[in-house]
Amino acid sequence: APDVVVTLISMSDTASVLLDKRPLDRDLVNTLKSFGKRPPHSHGNYLPALDKALDTMIKDAANRANMLLLFLSDGAPSDHNFVECKHGVQVWQPIAKDEIYTSGP
């Protein structure tokens, strides 16, 4: 469908838009395959990526009847220890004295 587009946001120390509203076509498939060949680097911080996704969706909401957010990661977030979201709540909380963390208070 011509109105179906894809935006790809990187998840690293900061978040950046790698693809912005690209049509869902063969060129996009080839571009995504080339991204899959890149070596991993740096951290995978969730909060900047989620903030960037929210900003991107808000800016484009009037142009879309439907939106789908896929959040892909290869593991635990790098920003899970002692990082507060913009609401001042620590994203991951320690459980007792263990080194195990859980989301929320």
UniProtKB/TrEMBL annotation:
The protein's name: VWFA domain-containing protein
